[in-house]
Amino acid sequence: MSAAEGSGAHLTEAQRLDWLRLIRTDSIGPQTFRALINRFGGAAAAIDAAPRLAAQKGRSLVIADLDACRREMDALAVMGGRLLALGEPEYPAALRAIHAPPPLISVLGDASVLSRPMVAVIGSRNASAAGLAFTERVVRDLAAAGFVIASGLARGVDARAHQASLGMGTVAALAGGLDRVYPPEHVGLAQDICARGAVITEMPLGWEPRGRDFPRRNRIVAGLALGTLVIEASRGSGSLITAKYAADEGREIFAVPGSPLDPRAEGTNGLLRDGATLCTQADDVLNVLLPMAEGRAPPQLPLFRETEAVAATEPLWDETDLFYEANVPTTVAGLAFDEPLRPAPSPAPSVSNAAASRSGPQGANLHAVVESLLGPSPVGLDDLVRAVGAPVAEVRSALLDLELEGRLERHGGGLVSLLSKN
Hints:
Largest sheet: 9 strands, mixed
Structural class: alpha/beta
Helix content: 25-40%
Strand order of the largest sheet: 1-2-6-5-4-3-7-8-9
Number of helices: 15
Mean pLDDT: 82
Number of strands: 14
Order of helices and strands: HHHHEHEEHEHEHEHEHEHEHEEHEHHEE
Distance between the termini: 67 Å
CATH topology of the domain at 107-295: Rossmann fold
CATH class of the domain at 107-295: Alpha Beta
CATH architecture of the domain at 107-295: 3-Layer(aba) Sandwich
Strand content: 5-15%
Shape: elongated
């Protein structure tokens, strides 16, 4: 292996192109990439040797097209992005320490935030108004204490976590390419994040995210952070997959308790039962993570080793590993790899040329949105209005409808909660 590859120095542009060709080759994922680099001493040598090695194993391996990889690098540069390689100084130290770190990540925005300590904040896409209000409050306190907020740009808790930390540092990990933001309505949010934070992905430009790509994204979110805070999560949700990756890597897990009557709290309450640290305020997280951020780096795995350890989590790639037979499962933590996206992504706009739609719900849809945001936990009108994104008078009208239906309970201090259907 050359001195530049794996030593903490920067790759040359020729080496970066070789790395990109190797990792963009079908059937080569992070584990195979590391094994090839480790065996042949560099990406260029691996590109020459891997097809012959595959042929000896009775397999066919076609290295990614040189011109296509050059076009990807050029297009990324035009967008204002860059490729960071594993082992380069700017590559996030915590992410480097996981069992299957991406050899290359595409970065758009301010890459300097990647060197700061992070907390992952994740939760339900169908979050309650109370959950969203808590997310905003705890994220502001965590960011004020110096932590960058990492999340996955999903609807619900993820989006609110990014929004609450926009001015202080946030990182969004994507399941698709940088020009294929999912969900499409968060293109504007991705643009805002790039102003003072970063959007990252291991996927190529133009890559439309599939169901199996989201667990890969989740491992990056967990890998970036010293600890993961789960605010709302139903049983079997993607947030629990992220928490599983964090636990497998020895990272801290925090969970916000919720009502046993609310399905959105089943996952978080289960995490607490299994030993996660209870979080009711930012100090619960800061008391654990601040000492780590100030004086104790996350455990470092060697960049390349002759004998690779078996990953703590299931493999996520259709890797044809040239040194062992990979047993690729069809699920991770109960989530099917090719589970259809709902809604299925339409051709997604580019981060560089689209704006997000931020109009609020109306009419019957408003009634449904208000109902979905309420749960057994009381929430204030101001927090509900913020979560709905509609005028206060319209939200009041929807609450009155729910009250007439016998679905709404009013509490002191202007708080309201949802009664379960009889």
